[in-house]
From TrEMBL:
Chain segments annotated as transmembrane: none
Protein name: Glycylpeptide N-tetradecanoyltransferase
Chain intervals with Low complexity compositional bias: 8-19
Entry GO MF terms: glycylpeptide N-tetradecanoyltransferase activity
Biased composition (Polar residues): 25-36
Catalytic reaction(s) noted: N-terminal glycyl-[protein] + tetradecanoyl-CoA = N-tetradecanoylglycyl-[protein] + CoA + H(+)
Top-rank EC class of the record's enzyme: transferase
Enzyme Commission number, as recorded: 2.3.1.97
Similarity comment: family membership: Belongs to the NMT family.
Region of interest: Disordered: 1-36, 59-86
Coiled-coil regions listed in the entry: none
Length: 437
């Protein structure tokens, strides 16, 4: 469910029209703006809305918010494995469960085409996420992954894949506790099968298969508000190719701006400016792991990465994940690190363009190089590689560079959730050290 989008369920997350292609310093803190009143009304409606499925699940419920008598930690204790339901949940007659073997080209292609045609779109249906096959294989096969957590639903007769949901294992630290979790992602039901309550069955089935591995907690993100977010984050967007972004309707020309002034505004140097800035290599895994582990300690919720995780998640993989570091010329110590992953969106129904190439900020650590300078170098690399836009959530310390580096706020929010784990406080985005794909 990590759709990396905003309340509008926007894969490309349109820039806030108010951002006007310059950065509006008040865009994020105008308590009295019409936007924020509208948001409060929306929240009110959402809060009063019934969630027949989610109210039956071990997740924080809206009615319990702020109740100091409820203990932090697991909401329900684990059950003995022998008591976990052994058979899959029932599907409507014409459909059957499959376990997707993401090692095979054929399966990858089927999943790719389901998602490419049916996964997250923005409110105006202008963009749809287009995760590449290589990306899907990377995202779904980290160290210790379970094939049984890659779940599809087919039409029995035609064998057509019509729904999908996945989990991958992750150690997530919540405050002082390291919890074995599933990261749930890629929940998708074919457009023709929507609103038939198939999603709750998908979620129950992935939960059952997670339980069978003796794992009882999960984390996920979504553009929609469900019971109950641990944090509400926002996407910000940094134009790299402003002309194309304007041409495809991703952003607008500011009222007092011309195209050439806009292009000039977003121009970047040709190459990174930090001495010792270079691509991460296999030999850097131990140093990057140390750096990242030290850095992530400060956040309330963050992954507990070991070297195997770092090798999988952060070693550069062409058109999937890019990582750079700063190596001191004197000591050869790795002092800083930045990374982004590649998630293009299909541009729906545009005559000139079919794809928007987007980079998404992933994990960044600065100890010697100022974060602002490090991220400027990341922008330069992304621009060199032909990305149209660089997106970043306001998690971790990202607020430090967003406005300064000419990111504009997106028009919605990304909610973070924990399953079967209660936190007695709502977290600020800057308390989160976790990025889901
Ligand atoms: C998300 C999606 C699978 C939901 O399916 P649907 O056919 O719209 O909804 P269903 O009738 O099957 O189920 C509705 C239930 O699923 C819940 N639900 C909807 N979206 C959800 C999400 N992203 N994560 C978790 N639960 C979700 C609803 O809240 C509702 O439960 P409730 O009554 O307790 O509130 C489907 O809309 C879809 O494929 N959308 C495009 C891809 C997408 O947005 N994926 C989610 C990324 S986070």
């Amino acid at each position: 469910m990590a759709d990396n989008d905003v309340t509008s369920s926007s894969p490309a997350a349109n820039q806030n029209p108010n951002s006007d292609h310059t950065v509006d310093p008040n865009a994020n803190d105008s308590e009295t703006s019409i936007d924020s009143i509208a948001q409060q009304l929306q929240d009110g409606i959402t809060l009063s809305k019934r969630h027949k499925f989610w109210e039956s699940q071990p997740v924080g419920q809206f009615k319990d918010a702020g109740n100091p008598n409820l203990l932090e930690g697991p909401i329900e204790p684990p059950t003995p494995l022998s008591e976990v339901k052994q058979q899959p949940y029932n599907l409507p007659g014409p459909y059957e469960w499959i376990t997707c073997d993401m090692d095979t080209k054929e399966m990858c292609s089927e999943v790719y085409s389901l998602l490419t045609n049916n996964y997250v779109e923005d409110d105006e249906n202008m963009f749809r996420f287009n995760y590449s096959k290589d990306f899907l294989q990377w995202a779904l096969r980290p160290p210790g992954y379970y094939r049984s957590w890659h779940i599809g639903v087919r039409v029995k007769l035609s064998k057509k894949l019509v729904a999908f949901v996945t989990g991958v294992p992750a150690k997530i630290r919540v405050k002082d506790t390291i919890v074995d979790m599933a990261e749930i992602n890629f929940l998708c039901v074919h457009k023709k099968l929507r609103s038939k309550r198939l999603a709750p069955v998908m979620i129950k089935e992935v939960t059952r298969r997670v339980h069978l591995e003796n794992i009882w907690q999960a984390t996920y993100t979504a553009g929609v508000v469900l019971p109950t977010p641990i944090s509400t984050c926002q996407y910000w967007h940094r134009s790299l190719n402003p002309k194309k972004l304007i041409d495809v309707g991703f952003s607008r020309l500011g009222s007092r701006m011309t195209m050439s002034r806009t292009i000039k505004l977003y121009k970047l140097p040709d190459s990174p400016i930090t001495p010792g800035f270079r691509k991460m290599e296999l030999r850097d895994v131990p140093a990057v792991t140390r750096l990242l582990r030290g850095y992530l300690k400060q956040f309330i919720v963050a992954p507990d990465f070991d070297e195997k995780d770092v090798e999988h998640w952060l070693l550069p993989k062409e058109d999937v994940v890019d990582s750079y570091l700063v190596e001191s010329s004197e000591t050869h110590a790795v002092t800083d690190f930045c990374s982004f992953y590649t998630l293009p969106s299909t541009v729906i129904g545009n005559q000139n363009y079919s794809i928007l190439k987007a980079a998404y900020s992933y994990y960044n650590v600065s100890t010697k190089t100022p974060l602002l300078q490090l991220m400027n170098d990341a922008l330069i690399e992304a621009k060199k590689k032909g990305y149209d836009v660089f997106n970043a959530l306001n998690v971790m310390e990202n607020e430090v560079f967003l406005k300064e580096l000419k990111f504009g706020p997106g028009d919605g929010q990304l909610q973070y959730y924990l399953y079967n784990y209660r936190l007695n406080q709502t977290l600020r985005p800057s308390d989160l050290g976790l990025v889901l794909l």
